[in-house]
Design goal:
heterodimer; A: mainly alpha; globular; B: mainly alpha; 2 helices
Chain lengths: 221, 94
Amino acid sequence: MRKLFIPIVVVAAAMFAWAPVGIARVPFESTMLLVQKIFYFHFATWMAVTAAVIVCGVSSAIYLFKGTPAADHYAVASAELTAIFCTFGLFSGSLWGRKAWGVWWQWDARLTMAFLLEMVFLGYLLVRKYGGPGSEKLAAAMGIFGAATAPFIYKSVDWWRTIHPQTSVMKTLGSQFPAAWNLVWFCSAAFLLLFVVLLSARVRLEELRAQMDRAYLAAEE
Amino acid sequence: MIRRIGFLFSAGGAMLFTAATGFAQSQPAQDGFVPVTGVPASEQIPAAPLVVAVYAFFLLLMMFYLWTIWRRIARVEADMRALEHRQGSASRER
């Protein structure tokens, strides 16, 4: 993984450098016009949130049932990234909604559940910071339950009436608007690479902290 | 004098009446809210500041987050160096 870190950083940086050019060049959507250009990063950030939530859930389960320290490093790193990407997802959605729906926020199923996801992972981070000894196990349980909400958030627009577009929008996008379809997956790939880069850096921080804890224990003995 | 004041009052009253009836003819009284389809361009929220705000916020958020990771790694590395230094000086004293 460490050998691939620099090439991934370079590819991700190149993709993020080209993304604004692609977004500027892609044709406008017929009803929403300019504001629809928020879509390319808005959708992509939720793809990164999905990846972060899956990594956190799986790592938390491994740590809780097997006690592997490396899994805990991945769990805490991905929980922090979930909170970061979720913040951007909610912010970008709010600004898009202001123009498209006329409101900054609406307490409908999709938006409320996404907000609760952010709250769960902020809670996870607070437990890790202030929970004291043994908080890793409690946080791992929170990580598993936080990840378990992801499928409900995804399907919420199909199960309940909301003002947020349904999942079927993405199914028809490829045939109706191929340029947007290609660009949104390009941006999603860029966000997933960014997620990998940030995850690696954040895991490195956890490894260093664990190394320092071991060094302090050795010094005391 | 009284005639002049009376003339002024009657002229002013006539002007007000004419203006009021003219306004009433041009703008009929509206009974409640009337819906319209479409909003004039001057009333619409501009999209450009929202789009710029989203992309600027993303850039700032990522820069801030990278800076926090870098700062935390630097702090841990400084602590480790300090610990190694203390261990080294303690072993020399023995």
